[in-house]
Known about the structure:
The protein is α/β, with parallel strands linked by helices. The protein folds into two domains: 2-11 and 148-220, Helicase, Ruva Protein, domain 3 (Orthogonal Bundle), CATH 1.10.8; 22-144, P-loop containing nucleotide triphosphate hydrolases (Rossmann fold, 3-Layer(aba) Sandwich). 51% of the residues lie in helices and 11% in strands. A five-stranded parallel sheet has the order 2-3-4-1-5, with helices on both faces. Helix 4 packs parallel to helix 5 and helix 6 (150-163) packs across helix 8. The protein is elongated. The two termini are 30 Å apart. The model is unreliable at 1-10 (pLDDT under 50).
Amino acid sequence: xxxxLLDIVPAWQPTLDKFVAGxxxxxxxxxxxxxxxxxxxxxxxxxxxxxxxxxxxxQACVRAxxxxxxxxxxxxxxxxQFAEVVAVDDVERLDDAAQIGLFNxxxxxxxxxxxxLVSGAQxxxxxxxxxxxxxxxxxxxxxxxxxxxxxxxxQALAQHAQSxxxxxPQEVTQYLLRHGRRxxxxxxxxxxxxxxxxxxxxxxxxxxxxxEILQRELELK
Length: 221
């Protein structure tokens, strides 16, 4: 029965609607604008610390384009195939050949009128990449993705729990924010583990069950 319950939990997919903007409202608006075919700038470079939401935004844009029946491709640390919307995550991980590939893709995307999204850990000025590629990435719209406050993280966690079909008690959220890892992907992963653990035991999510999850995580390290 527990396996059947797990099978009917909807798979979580990053979307623009699920992105809690916080201080990134201008960036979110610009991405929606560009995906709608409005505006002349079609190249975006977003940067920020790990867990700030860069990957969520890139994957969400590719999903939005696919839902609109446009060709779209995403890759992390590599260069994906050409499409109307292309997202390249973790640009600093590209080797020399991939950097040349991205440089050529950038020029092709500008000529075709496509939309290119690239993410990195630093602003273009400080990227350890080919000079010509670093310059190209700085030509488009550049945004820093700001991390969320605890209040905004709580909002994101509640939204994620709702997408999985359960209500998140406030005391569980508070405990997770105090004792869990600080980045949002880790917090969401802990919440997913709590949901699955609760389903297996046929019990509602609670602080005692969350403690079991966090303790298990510590033991595995």
